[in-house]
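Protein modeling request. Please complete all fields; requests missing the sequence field cannot be processed.
Requester role: graduate student
Desired output: 3D structure, token encoding
Chains: 1
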Amino acid sequence: MTTGQLTPTPQSADPAGRHLLQPTYQNRLRVIGRALDEHELEQALIVELDETLLLRAYNAGEETFVSETFTDERLLQTLRMAVYARGQSEATPYRSPLHPTGYEDFLRALGHRLDERGAEAVVIVECPKYFQVSGRELLGNIPNLPTTPFAEMYEVPKVNNLVNEAVSRRADPGSFDAPLIQFVEPIQPTRILRTGSRST
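Delivered output (200 residues):
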């Protein structure tokens, strides 16, 4: 597929979108969610290593797993392009019973929750009926204190509640939570590695 090239310039930056360029879980996971939606991937596994998020997911159309590395630099460049292109295209969520409004909505809302609790070293595993989310968090969300491990299950009701809370925040005129970003071009993962396929 041929895609266009965007060359954002500082002069055209949207000041209201500057918070979208921060390396938060909310911003980073929404990019990965968008990639999962656009490429119709499933059975996602996301692992955080230092300033990198590793993604492995299943491509049902090709009956194989694919993997991709998202560095913070790459994620923020994608977000930067999205800020300049906001409103110019519509996203098509890849829906399933576990995430009815798509990966991007859920992962973005989950990222907001992780940011609030001061999480780090996060691992997200998509199982058939729930997401397993684990990592470490600030004890009492107080800086400079030791972190403690956490693990949570997000079944369908909990996924829906999390997304509905995010929608409510965006509907609040005083909220700092920006609308869902829209991309001019789909994210085209590079360096996709085939890690296995099912024989026919």
